[in-house]
Amino acid sequence: MQNTKEKILTVATKIFSRYGFYKTSMDEIARISHKAKGSLYYHFASKEELFTEVVSREIEHMKKELSVIVTDTNLNAGEKLRKYLFTRMAVLKQASNYHETLKADFFEHFEFIDKLRGEMDHWEKVQLRFIINQGIEEGVFGNKGKSTGVLLDVFVMVLKGLEIPFFLQDKYDELQPHFDDLINIIIKGMSPD
Question: Which Pfam families does the record cross-reference, listed alphabetically (predicted)?
């Protein structure tokens, strides 16, 4: 039973990635995975539920990669932040189904993705708060009397804002070499004066 579900998810990930959510049908996923359409609906009530699971797995992969960085005791907070930001964008570059969720028309029509992205935002704020607090303790970042909560909101907004040109406009390879400059600006802006 679990093998069937995994097979469906593997095929769905590839097909959604290739054709996008709108142009992918459950019939096509069933045909390519060599499963009866009923098997798909046994495991997933709808195409939306299947797509949510596919995107959720991409997000879980990103969380796993980023958690390793956040918990790395060999890195100071500045190094963690730099590595976190680079890794985040590199992992998201591979998460082609996540890219689909960035499209404006997708947001407007599918609330199921809004919940998933909201959970991701919250998780990221927890990770970034940990790095920032570590940086304040180490003296790498200054505590300039600003609310960490507001700083985290702005930080996540900046990261989300970068996703559109990096992934939807397919400028990752063009912009990635300059990402280090942006990270330097962020770290300098957070450093104690």
Answer: TetR_N (PF00440)
